[in-house]
Write a structure and sequence with these properties.
mainly alpha
Length: 64
């Protein structure tokens, strides 16, 4: 019988929590900046870094 991969599930839960917190932080930042001027925030860079580290960890898990 196959075993559950709890580390993978835990990591996915952590990533979802990080994403939710980042979205919350951005909402708060937008709320503070009510005067309408734009605030440049690089969320795409954050997402790419998270995806890269996830890929690296998955590769380590499969190879290790």
């Amino acid at each position: 019988m196959a075993r559950a991969n709890f580390k993978f599930e835990k990591r996915q839960k952590e990533l979802a929590k990080q994403k939710k917190n980042e979205e919350k932080r951005l909402r708060k930042l937008e709320k503070r900046n009510e005067d309408g001027s734009e605030v440049s925030v690089d969320t795409e860079v954050t997402e790419v870094v998270v995806e890269k580290t996830e890929a690296e960890k998955l590769e380590e898990f499969l190879n290790g």
